[in-house]
């Protein structure tokens, strides 16, 4: 048993830190720290910065422009980025589509799409969920019918994160309606500019527009955009979901959010004293820190396993549940910490680069919106109820 | 023992319920939220006509109610319909202060409030005061024939539509209250919507000159009157929360009945049934806490405030449970602004930030407990 990083790992961490020191502008990190909405330009700028250093595709092999890092290195990198309040990278192309293309895509697909993900030419979004197919994804109905060398796609996707910015969408579509639910699904890449694709934004309760409905009406897609074999899409999607689950604990996010919370506590007063001097509030913060310390170690235990080549199994469900509960609890405390300034909502003041005047201390503006926005953490990526079902079945054998 | 409302109160509740069902749908609510002062003149006039405002005042003040249970039935209905009209700001706390402390001239304002022609809004809390009503840094300096006020009041609920403000300030003699025109020289309002659709203002008082007749009550009477007004305000908020909880629970239970995944209604999954059962149990607890506080609104201050803190603490905790569970059990749809659930969920959380949150009232309740223990020892 050794709880420490090796000398190499520590040296790598220092390298990451000095990179962030030089390359992450304080304007950008302040936006992240204060919970402002990032524009597409903000995100593109950060992707480009990482790409210049060769650190954008942390989970790709070196020959395709990735870092080739093992799980421990990836963990160190992700944690340092969070602690420095760097924007998160957009996972759809980098860590959801790319692993599928690398494993199941044709050489032509890899050569065409992967470089364009790296250099920012193509933005991807994920078209899985449908109005009637959420947790029960296999019941999806969007149809793709072969017509010569094209598929004709009809149907609707929903909750498509950042679909409004995307150039391409990777979709699960039904190609064989007669087959058993999981067996008639294919994995199809669709250019969002194709005639018949319509995007309608959905406003969430925090006032932000990060998700969309995407409608397909007789959308013609070249058969060359099918990934792997027809009707094997479910296998690929499941493979992709295991990648969605890496870094699922969000320890870095929680650590950064906890630091931000403590900073706020130092500035907020209760009865004339710092909020951290109030035993009721301090007790709540301490409780979360205690939980987080333990979860950080649970997370490292899983990472060490992964680095040793063992595939993450149902354990990732534990990390998903605990990790999201802790993040949501920190958001909850941040909302409490700002007191009555949790109420005002000047939506424009949260937009990147906006000049709108907020109300109260700058750090208060995003407290309640973030609390509500992060209710999503226990809903998406396999809801926490679905994760508990997995644990009951796969680990407990119930 | 009788836990039923009187006939008059039931009629009031039914009248308001019917009015809101017919007139306060999603569109009307959206219009009030989008209104620059956060309310609807039409709805406000109707409230006056239906006697909804009058129900919040005692007969001696020209109203026909004013008890804890009158406040409770009105606000439970408002909560059920996610109503954002500034009734609590204008009708409950300011009304109590005017009634308890006002000169004849000041008390005469109540008639206009009941008639829906005037909105008087308390502006008590400040950027640094958190939830304390006596942590006042606004100053009142005695000048010829009156006072000069300087300071900042923050997140004044109902501020944008206020005609008059009741402002607390500290002078050499102690805490004082003043009634002033919201448009008086030197009163600067910065108004904005809150996350839950209510509207509020930050109010800067810059050398605001008021005459001595603006003073509301003798200094030593101010704090007790503020506590009594807060007790009424907390009763209103607790009732509004219970109404919002019921609405959120109903929407969620109905959704679990109609939404199918994996070939069955979500409501058939036992894991979710148990979660909803817990929600129901806790809402019943919240309702009892509301009855406790409403029933003790006229009790002596020690006992009254014990129930105030008990109710606000318990209801704050249940509000969070109901908010989070109803969003979670809805899945993605529960996170959308278009769907009514979000309005209730947001209101439930924001209520915790008015007149003291869960921790604030827990601390006060501990104080009550400790002094009871000390009395017993003595
Ligand atoms: C902000 C946000 C962003 C998203 N981004 C994307 C995206 O980019 N691309 C994409 O494809 N999808 C995306 N999603 C969709 C997400 O994956 C779904 O919301 C999720 O799968 C849940 O589906 P649902 O919302 O339809 O809820 P439902 O599946 O209807 O579930 C409702 C409730 O029932 C519970 N439940 C369901 N089945 C069971 C069961 N068997 N046992 C016990 N409980 C159960 C759920 O846990 C939940 O609490 C996003 C969602 C959100 C909120």
From TrEMBL, chain A:
<dbReference type="InterPro" id="IPR046373">
    <property type="entry name" value="Acyl-CoA_Oxase/DH_mid-dom_sf"/>
</dbReference>
<comment type="similarity">
    <text>Belongs to the acyl-CoA dehydrogenase family.</text>
</comment>
<keyword id="KW-0285">Flavoprotein</keyword>
<dbReference type="Pfam" id="PF02770">
    <property type="entry name" value="Acyl-CoA_dh_M"/>
</dbReference>
<dbReference type="Pfam" id="PF00441">
    <property type="entry name" value="Acyl-CoA_dh_1"/>
</dbReference>
<dbReference type="InterPro" id="IPR009100">
    <property type="entry name" value="AcylCoA_DH/oxidase_NM_dom_sf"/>
</dbReference>
<keyword id="KW-0274">FAD</keyword>
<feature type="domain" description="Acyl-CoA oxidase/dehydrogenase middle">
    <location>
        <begin position="125"/>
        <end position="219"/>
    </location>
</feature>
<dbReference type="InterPro" id="IPR036250">
    <property type="entry name" value="AcylCo_DH-like_C"/>
</dbReference>
<feature type="domain" description="Acyl-CoA dehydrogenase/oxidase C-terminal">
    <location>
        <begin position="231"/>
        <end position="396"/>
    </location>
</feature>
<dbReference type="InterPro" id="IPR009075">
    <property type="entry name" value="AcylCo_DH/oxidase_C"/>
</dbReference>
<dbReference type="InterPro" id="IPR052161">
    <property type="entry name" value="Mycobact_Acyl-CoA_DH"/>
</dbReference>
<dbReference type="InterPro" id="IPR006091">
    <property type="entry name" value="Acyl-CoA_Oxase/DH_mid-dom"/>
</dbReference>
<dbReference type="Pfam" id="PF02771">
    <property type="entry name" value="Acyl-CoA_dh_N"/>
</dbReference>
<dbReference type="InterPro" id="IPR037069">
    <property type="entry name" value="AcylCoA_DH/ox_N_sf"/>
</dbReference>
<keyword id="KW-0560">Oxidoreductase</keyword>
<feature type="domain" description="Acyl-CoA dehydrogenase/oxidase N-terminal">
    <location>
        <begin position="7"/>
        <end position="120"/>
    </location>
</feature>
<dbReference type="InterPro" id="IPR013786">
    <property type="entry name" value="AcylCoA_DH/ox_N"/>
</dbReference>
<protein>
    <recommendedName>
        <fullName>Pimeloyl-CoA dehydrogenase large subunit</fullName>
    </recommendedName>
</protein>
UniProtKB/TrEMBL annotation, chain B:
<dbReference type="InterPro" id="IPR037069">
    <property type="entry name" value="AcylCoA_DH/ox_N_sf"/>
</dbReference>
<feature type="domain" description="Acyl-CoA oxidase/dehydrogenase middle">
    <location>
        <begin position="124"/>
        <end position="200"/>
    </location>
</feature>
<dbReference type="InterPro" id="IPR046373">
    <property type="entry name" value="Acyl-CoA_Oxase/DH_mid-dom_sf"/>
</dbReference>
<dbReference type="InterPro" id="IPR013786">
    <property type="entry name" value="AcylCoA_DH/ox_N"/>
</dbReference>
<dbReference type="InterPro" id="IPR036250">
    <property type="entry name" value="AcylCo_DH-like_C"/>
</dbReference>
<comment type="similarity">
    <text>Belongs to the acyl-CoA dehydrogenase family.</text>
</comment>
<dbReference type="Pfam" id="PF02770">
    <property type="entry name" value="Acyl-CoA_dh_M"/>
</dbReference>
<keyword id="KW-0274">FAD</keyword>
<feature type="domain" description="Acyl-CoA dehydrogenase/oxidase N-terminal">
    <location>
        <begin position="6"/>
        <end position="108"/>
    </location>
</feature>
<dbReference type="InterPro" id="IPR006091">
    <property type="entry name" value="Acyl-CoA_Oxase/DH_mid-dom"/>
</dbReference>
<dbReference type="InterPro" id="IPR009100">
    <property type="entry name" value="AcylCoA_DH/oxidase_NM_dom_sf"/>
</dbReference>
<dbReference type="InterPro" id="IPR009075">
    <property type="entry name" value="AcylCo_DH/oxidase_C"/>
</dbReference>
<dbReference type="Pfam" id="PF00441">
    <property type="entry name" value="Acyl-CoA_dh_1"/>
</dbReference>
<dbReference type="Pfam" id="PF02771">
    <property type="entry name" value="Acyl-CoA_dh_N"/>
</dbReference>
<feature type="domain" description="Acyl-CoA dehydrogenase/oxidase C-terminal">
    <location>
        <begin position="236"/>
        <end position="349"/>
    </location>
</feature>
<keyword id="KW-0285">Flavoprotein</keyword>
<keyword id="KW-0560">Oxidoreductase</keyword>
<protein>
    <submittedName>
        <fullName>Acyl-CoA dehydrogenase</fullName>
    </submittedName>
</protein>
